[in-house]
Amino acid sequence: MLDIYGTLFISGSGDIGTDRESDAGQDHLEDLIHRYRLERSPDQLRNAFFSAVESSHQKMKNQGVDVPEVKYDQIWASILPKMDPQEIHSFAVAYELIVNPVYPMPNLETLLSGCRKRGLTLGIISNAQFFSPLLFHWFLGGLPESIGFHPNLLFYSYRYGVAKPSPVLFGAAVSALKDQDIGVAEVLYVGNDMLNDVYAGEQAGFQTALFAGDARSLRLRKDNERIEKISPDLVVTDLAQILDYV
Questions:
Q1: pTM over 0.90
Q2: 3 domain residue, yes or no
Q3: pLDDT averaged over every residue in the chain
Q4: Most CB within 10 Å of its CB: which of 33, 112, 200, 231?
């Protein structure tokens, strides 16, 4: 079971989304605004997006959601109500790729092909949006289901309304793995975040691997008390190293 951003794909921000204070892609944002004939500056657009996300998160927390997740297409639809759904999807993808460019992590294809050759079951548990599976299509030639990932083992946060490290995603994965006759102790969960991945994976009963091959995305969370006594079963700096373990 694998994380996406910062693990399988290099991310400009080290994660999905970007920092509110970042001015990444300012010139390209101006081009995007011009293309869609929007009467906003890049800063106004960025601030509107983050304000809408924060407002949605607060509403969900008030309803008892521990780690809220939004759907980016719904956020953009609330900001740009004159756009039709297809335009919203196209705009959301373009915006994300501008502010948070991504590229395959070195040896991603080596890892996936090696797992397929070994007959290993592959799945995903990741903070993600509707466009995240498209990364596999763009860079690897097919959606996850067509390049070796089990269609019943794809857990994207936007579908559940919660993000890691909430146990909701991992609980759903444990249940689905059971349906495939796979026990939790047989699972290796790989991610770049000590809290969201290693801690959450261990809580679910998985073996865990910390991917430390990209300094920008590595999240050690040293000040978080939940990981004080937590350590991964494996630390790798190259995705291909996982094949030596499995």
A1: yes
A2: no
A3: 94
A4: 200
